[in-house]
Amino acid sequence: MAISRREFFLNSAKLATTSALIATGIVSYSKYAYSIPATAIRPPGALKEKDFISACIRCGLCVNDCPFPTLSLATEKDGVAIGTPFFTARKAGCEMCDDIPCVKACPTGALDKSLTDINNSKMGLARIVDTEGCIAYQGLRCEVCFNVCPIRGKAITIEMKHNKRSGSHTLFIPIVNYDHCTGCGKCEEACIMEEAVIKVLPMQLVMGKRQDHYKLGWEEKQKAGGSLVSPDIEHKYNLPEGKQYDLYGKGLTDIKVESSLDNALDSLNSLNPLFNIKRK
Amino acid sequence: MKKINICQVVGDDAKKTKGWIGANKYLILRRLSQLGILFLFLLGPWFDVWIIKGNLTSSLILDTLPLSDPFILLQSFFAGHSLAVDALIGGLIVLIFYLVVGGRVFCSWVCPMNIVTDAANYFRCKLGIKATSSGVSNKTRYWILAVSMSTAWLTSSIVWELVNPVSILHRSIIFGMSFGWGLIVLIFLFDLFVVKNGWCSRLCPMGAFYSLLGKVSLLRVNAKEREKCTDCLECYAVCPESQIINPALKGNNSSIILDKNCTNCGRCIDICEPKVFSYSSRFKKN
């Protein structure tokens, strides 16, 4: 059945418009669908979120090979891109298997096979997000997170501080160390508070970024093998013109240019006893 | 005279000569294949027997043979991910398999959505709902295929899989789902009330992708004994892509159905009383 040129173009226009509409719908939906909640942690070795959602084909092989009830594939209600693997630390943290079966199972490289030592994984980073709620900060002994940590004594250490409230006791403050924390979430899972005060957050959420122009003097010194400025100049604040800075006083303030007239008036006024009373 | 819907009498004659099983042979085999594959996937999570792991997008048989869906790998490629070896090997195996047995054999023998849309078709016939075939062009699926790839490229992520009912259904049966059922029910209702074979034969980009393999795939349906045709029109009624039959059955050229959209479901072979159709290679000289 031959169709006229007019019909052909009309049909194509119809289909192209429909396709464009569908594409717009899907792309808009994807913006919402890819806003991963902070509670959803990707398996070990997962690429950066942006790359992960182009690499993960949602086959669930990592979930099948996870020996614990940790990993699951997201359904519509999880708020995670549907079908992608994740875990919720509060429910079940990663047990950090030595042989990392989930990474081995991944066929596409969404979980990076170059991760061979689970201790090097960075699923997220644990942070004590609520120091008010953490009882260790209030002077009570707890240290549960410190004790359940699979890299005990390294990823979380206890820092002892003076308890100012009682004046004679010690605070045993848990501190998460970036270099060793894998984001497995066992600390969040175990936190004894009704709502965990220590939480594992996804890297893209928890990590800040310094601009390149911030150089750490001592590092640069080491790199250069000696002081870069010689002789070493004395520390001073680099302040905008007409400003002064007093760390323990009023902070950043204008430098007051006192005119000789003001001084003369002040000294005149100081002769008046009433003026001094008012001023105090 | 009461007008009868041809779909309600389809296969009656074939049953008389070939018996119930003979007239439903490939339908039964297809259901066994579809449910069997699903069951194999469920053996793991249900009974802890891991013959096959994963789901239809990628799986691992007996911890050795990788299989991956080339359609989703292509999306991943367009999203900018350079694929790992496992996925490429798995994709290649699947690709070669369907190039031999027929591109859309996936649709009719493997895809779980087929059971849903076949059910819609069954009820459409039983309820005597008029077959509306106009409205949605069967070329729409190729445009949606283009949409699925271009959106992957535009967003650098596999977006079609957020809405792909085929993978959502299969994954959900194996890994659990919440309101994903809604999407499946909608497609069932769409096929039932709105457009006959609306999803599988008009919209699904996965089917469109496998149709492209069907352009060159080896195994075909052949209207070999076409001179025996009694013009009962039953094959046109059962075929999900009814436009593909005519050139082979009534044309003067090859009797082999070479149309890329043929799903090799074999329903025409089942219901044809004079046994016009049979499977053959695409190179067979009638």
- Strand content range of chain A: 5-15%
Contiguous uncertain segments of 5+ residues of chain A: none
Helix content of chain B: 40-55%
Which oligomeric state applies?
Answer: heterodimer
Task: Tell me the layout of helices and strands.
The complex is a heterodimer of chains A (280) and B (286).
Chain A: H1 5-33, E1 40-41, H2 49-55, H3 61-65, E2 72-73, E3 85-88, H4 101-105, E4 125-128, H5 144-148, E5 156-163, E6 169-176, H6 186-190, E7 198-201, H7 203-206, H8 217-224, E8 243-246, E9 251-254, H9 260-269, H10 273-279
Antiparallel strand pairs in A: 1-3, 2-3, 4-7, 5-6, 8-9
Chain B: H1 12-22, H2 25-47, E1 52-55, E2 58-61, E3 65-68, H3 70-78, H4 85-101, H5 105-110, H6 113-126, H7 140-155, H8 160-163, H9 165-175, H10 181-194, H11 198-203, H12 205-214, E4 219-222, H13 234-238, H14 245-249, H15 267-271, E5 278-281
Antiparallel strand pairs in B: 1-2, 2-3, 4-5
Describe the structure.
The complex is a heterodimer of chains A (280) and B (286). Chain A is α+β, with helices and mostly antiparallel strands. Among the domains of chain A are: 86 residues, no CATH class; 81 residues, Alpha-Beta Plaits. Chain A contains 10 helices and 9 strands. In chain A, strands 1-3-2 form a 3-stranded antiparallel β-sheet, with no helix packed on it. A two-stranded antiparallel ribbon of chain A has the order 4-7. The radius of gyration of chain A is 30 Å and the shape is extended. The mean pLDDT of chain A is 87. Chain B folds into 2 domains: 83 residues, Alpha-Beta Plaits (2-Layer Sandwich), CATH 3.30.70; 183 residues, no CATH class. Chain B has 15 helices and 5 strands. In chain B, the strands form 2 sheets. A 3-stranded antiparallel β-sheet of chain B has the order 1-2-3. Chain B has a two-stranded antiparallel ribbon with strand order 4-5. In chain B, a hairpin with a 2-residue loop joins β1 and β2. The model of chain B has no long low-confidence stretch (mean pLDDT 87). At the A-B interface, α1, α2, α3 and β2 of A face β1, β2, α3, α4 and α7 of B.
